[in-house]
Automatic annotation (TrEMBL):
Keyword Transferase among record annotations: no
Membrane topology type: Multi-pass membrane protein
GO cellular component: plasma membrane
Annotated protein name in UniProt: ABC transporter permease
Alphabetically ordered keywords of this record: Cell membrane, Membrane, Transmembrane, Transmembrane helix
InterPro entries: ABC3_permease_C, MacB_PCD, Macrolide_Exporter_MacB
MF-aspect GO terms: transmembrane transporter activity
Organism: Pseudohongiella acticola
Subcellular location: Cell membrane
Superkingdom assignment: Bacteria
Domain ABC3 transporter permease C-terminal: 295-410, 697-808
Location of the MacB-like periplasmic core domain: 20-242, 431-648
Lineage: Bacteria, Pseudomonadati, Pseudomonadota, Gammaproteobacteria, Pseudomonadales
Transmembrane stretches, start-end: 21-41, 288-309, 340-363, 383-407, 428-451, 697-716, 750-769, 781-803
Coiled-coil region list: none
Length: 817
């Protein structure tokens, strides 16, 4: 029986190659997009599952309320919490701490800056790295030891055996290589190249390194624990509130309660899409991108299925007699339903065959766009192949279900006698499908335009300072080793070039902001302190960024009291600060002129407002306004970020001078310099490119599929009304009036779709804009032009078919009827 269904299906598909080709094409487009995203989702779900015991590993995370009322979810842990955690919860089988750093590593003539991780020795017990050389049990127990990945070992030692070789870090310590691990796969949240044991850090920085007693101090440390029993995990979570209450030291209790510190356990499987990022405002960009891709793929696939249904319903007129004859000869409704679903499944499998080579070619660009690393062969793994096969079968079933139900319900007498339209309900179904399809298309087009507008706005926004011709240099100054090079001589010699107009210094390089700590006005009690981003700079910082002084003055060497010393500051002194109008408003200081000479306090240090500069955003519209730098502190401390304003007419000469001076003072380290504008644009690109390109592609594909669906409706409508058109022409109707009549039928559902889509698209774009602290606005003209373009496209899509029917010979059409 099934073979018979298959033969009949193949004959029907061969009889109408045009419709078959359009069905296969539309389904292929939907399958290509949805399978790529499905593989993306599976790849994301595979993160960190190569580690043994991954299901029992958790990260201890923290949430707290800033003094400004902002709830912050951090991936970090205050180091004072770690030891009490192990003492109170015996269910924790293993526990480890890690902290990221960056330094200059040297071996012989090879020197390079590298990110690395400080780790407690237990870290190698929790995460089962593949040791090629060395022993995970002992590799990092002793001080001055280091573990490298394979590629990092080749980077520094070339073909030499790295075991036992010595790497020097920042001229502070000689690290002996005690282990080499295989390079980690890309699907892990831990990007490790170098691991240094915490005993080494304690030898360099003291016993409190990564072992502070502070319960509200966040120095970048993260903690991982192994808890084998899921019930114990829930019990620990439920007890965390009591844990804080019974263990927090009395000297820290008031502050910890005021900021409402809470703890949680985050499963390893959830870390890749976790919005927690250090001690900062949550980052939802990865979830937003993946959610957007899933939504786009679902809409494209649904549009493909709707298109398939429209084309199948258009064929009802040609297959009405077949259905009637089959029913007359004894076929049941279930037989017909099976027949039509077999055809649907067959077409879906053909669409998959067409889609596979396109998927093979598209995986590379898709991985580059989304930062993933899955391969075509991963489709054919046991679990992936089963899921994709099931997904394709469900797609085929859903695509053919509505047409199969409609055609199997025909009464044999109606079908044979020619009453094949299906009535008002059938016309409403087809129109409804068209409305849904064009609603999706218009939403995606407007959303794609909205995303492009937001990206352009982020690139063009006034960020409060001149971002052109500003070079940012990392001085690589290490306060633990101040004799590593002559910092002042380097800075002074860099200034000795006519093409360098200004050189300012800052503790943090843009687009990064400074610290984020509670400040208060001198008249306010400590509990009214408000978290503000502040940055240590020198007197040339304002000129380097070309900030505008709105009131007061800049820092000046003529006022030594402005500057914090290079060492422990005196709490009896009052230092100088510059603040922004945002800070003036935040602390209720009145006007910018009235703010001058007001005193702000952080911890026990006093700062007098000597000037007010305009608001500025070091990260542009990508940063949360709460994190924008609002206070500049003057300091004499050496600072890593050197901000060099260069004359564009002497750009090449100035850059050559910078490189020459650097090579003279830092021959041990390659220079790290970038134009701020490049960094700024790259940041925007990385945050927005994936969702921007995906939206544009989804809009284009959905419009194409919708146009094919509209063509199907036009074909069906004109075929159904052939006799009516012939009668109209015999009675004197012109071809133009007939085209207008036919076209009106198509414009109605498209217009309704445009109205529905406008409201939904407004909500979608508004939600997207809200993800940025500098949201763009979408002009009303965008909606008008998209609607107009959609209507014009609809008319052009059906015009040819309508015109052909309207200009046909009425004698032939009436005779055929």
């Amino acid at each position: 029986m099934f073979l018979n269904y298959l033969i009949v299906a193949l004959r029907n598909l061969r009889k109408q190659p045009g419709f078959t080709a359009i069905k296969v094409l539309s389904l292929s487009l939907g399958l290509i997009c949805s399978i790529l995203v499905l593989m993306h989702v599976q790849y994301t779900n595979s993160y960190d599952k190569h580690f043994d015991n991954h299901e029992n590993i958790y990260r201890v995370v923290t949430s707290l309320t800033s003094t400004s009322g902002q709830r912050i979810d951090a991936s970090l842990i205050a180091e004072g919490i770690f030891n009490p955690l192990l003492q109170d919860y015996g269910q924790i089988e293993e526990a480890a701490k890690i902290n990221q750093g960056s330094g200059l590593f040297v071996y012989g003539d090879v020197s390079a800056t590298n990110e690395y991780w400080w780790v407690t020795p237990e870290f190698l017990k929790i995460f089962t790295f593949d040791f090629i050389q060395g022993d995970s049990e002992t590799a990092l127990v002793e001080p001055n030891t280091v573990v490298l990945t394979q590629s990092t070992a080749r980077k520094y030692f070339g073909p030499e055996d790295p075991m036992g070789k010595v790497l020097t870090i920042d001229n502070l310590a000689d690290l002996r290589v005690t282990g080499v691990i295989r390079d980690l796969p890309p699907n892990t949240h831990i990007d490790i190249e170098i691991m240094i044991g915490s005993p080494t850090g304690q030898q360099i920085a003291g016993e409190n390194f990564m072992n502070s007693t502070a319960w509200a101090g966040f120095g970048g440390t993260m903690a991982y624990v192994v808890i084998p029993d899921p019930a114990s995990v829930e019990a620990i979570r439920a007890d965390f509130e009591n844990f804080v209450e019974r263990n927090v030291p009395d000297t820290q209790r008031d502050f910890v309660q005021r900021i409402d510190i809470t703890l949680d356990l985050e499963p390893l499987a959830d870390l890749q899409l976790s919005p927690r990022q250090g001690f900062a405002v949550a980052d939802y960009s990865r979830t937003l991108v993946l959610g957007g891709l899933v939504t786009f793929a679902a809409l494209i696939l649904l549009s493909s299925c709707i298109n398939f249904a429209n084309l199948s319903l258009a064929q009802m007129q040609q297959r009405g007699k077949e259905t009637g004859v089959r029913k007359t000869l004894g076929a049941t409704r279930n037989d017909l339903l099976t027949q039509f679903l077999v055809e649907s499944m067959l077409l879906t499998l053909l669409a998959l065959v067409v889609a596979l080579p396109v998927i093979y070619l598209a995986i590379g660009p898709y991985n580059a766009l989304t930062g993933t690393a899955f391969t075509f062969s991963s489709m054919f793994g046991s679990s992936q192949a089963f899921i994709i096969t099931l997904f394709v079968l469900v797609t085929g079933f859903l695509s053919g279900l509505v047409p199969a139900l409609r055609m199997s319900r025909f009464a044999p007498t109606d079908a044979i006698s020619g009453k094949r339209d299906g009535g008002r309900s059938s016309r409403l179904v087809r129109s409804g499908l068209t409305v849904i399809q064009f609603t999706f298309a218009v939403i995606l087009v407007i959303l794609a335009i909205g995303i492009s507008v937001q990206v352009r706005y982020l690139n063009e926004i006034d960020i409060g300072f001149n971002r052109s011709n500003l070079v940012v240099i990392d001085a690589m100054y290490n306060p633990r080793n101040p004799e590593q090079f002559n910092y002042d001589a380097l800075v002074d010699e860099l200034r000795q070039h006519p093409g360098i107009t200004t050189l300012g210094k800052a503790q943090s390089a843009p687009p990064n902001n400074g610290g984020f700590n509670p400040w208060r006005h001198s008249s306010q009690p400590i509990e009214q302190a408000q978290a503000v981003s502040h940055l240590g700079v020198d007197e040339n910082y304002v000129d380097a960024l070309q900030l505008q002084i709105l009131a007061g003055r800049n820092f000046s060497q003529d006022f030594p009291a402005d500057y914090m010393p290079n060492g422990q500051p005196d709490s009896e002194q009052t230092f100088g600060i510059l603040i922004t109008p945002a800070a003036v408003e935040k602390f209720g200081l009145g006007s910018v002129d009235e703010a001058i000479d007001e005193v702000l306090i952080i911890n026990d240090l006093n700062f007098r407002v000597v000037g007010v500069v305009n608001d500025f955003r070091l990260s542009g519209g990508m940063e949360d306004t709460m994190r924008s730098t609002a206070i500049l502190r003057a300091t004499r401390q050496p600072m890593n970020a050197l901000l060099v304003r260069i004359d564009p007419l002497q750009r090449t000469s100035a850059l050559n001078h910078i490189d020459t001076v650097w090579a003279r003072h830092r021959p041990d380290a390659p220079i790290n310099r970038e134009f701020y504008e490049q960094t700024f644009n790259q940041q925007i690109y990385e945050e927005t490119n994936s969702i921007n390109r995906a939206a544009q592609f989804a809009a284009f594909i959905t419009i194409v599929i919708a146009a094919l669906g509209l063509y199907a409706l036009a074909f069906y409508s004109t075929e159904r009304r052939t006799k009516e058109i012939g009668v109209r022409k015999v009675l004197g109707a012109s071809a133009r009036s007939i085209v207008e009549l036919l076209t009106l039928d198509f414009i109605k559902p498209v217009l309704l779709a445009c109205v529905l889509a406008s409201g939904l698209a407004y909500l979608a774009t508004s939600y997207y804009f809200q993800q940025f602290s500098a949201p763009a606005n979408l002009s009303l003209w965008v909606f008008v032009l998209v609607i107009a373009g959609t209507i014009i496209l609809s008319i052009l899509t059906v015009a040819a078919q309508c015109f052909r029917t309207a200009t046909s010979d009425p004698v032939k059409s009436l005779r055929s009827e």
